[in-house]
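Folding Problem: From Residues to Backbone Shape
Fields: amino acid sequence; protein backbone structure tokens
RECORD BEGINS BELOW THIS LINE
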Amino acid sequence: MKGLVIVSHGLLAAGMLDSAKLFLGSELPQVKACCLKADDSPEAFGDQIQQAIDEVNTGEGAIVFADLFGGTPFNQTLPLLSDQIDCIAGINFAMLLEYLSKRTFEEVDLPSIVQGGQQNIIEAKGYLSTLTLDDDD
């Protein structure tokens, strides 16, 4: 099973991991959160990401979920990419839950994780306007 490192500005990564535990249980193996603080240097944060990857990678590799494309957490992940290390930027909670729930049982297709995350982004009023009511109500 591939390890997972969630990286973000502020405490978003830790909060997402904490919320995932409500759905999937408190024991999520091979998962770490790295939270960039205002006083962290980019280089020190890159070292923190590398250490987290090393901790969750048991030989099958790791995936880094970053909060924002082009931000420091994403940018500090780029030099760490390899045949075994992947990164997805723009993480949302639906993507995280889908990945964590599938990774134990199957090889996870990263493009499908991205697609699932995109499909969970809706504007509520627009969505509700597409629903039709049953005439029998």
About this structure: The chain has a mean pLDDT of 91. Strands lie at 3-9, 31-36, 62-66, 85-89. The chain has one domain: 3-130.
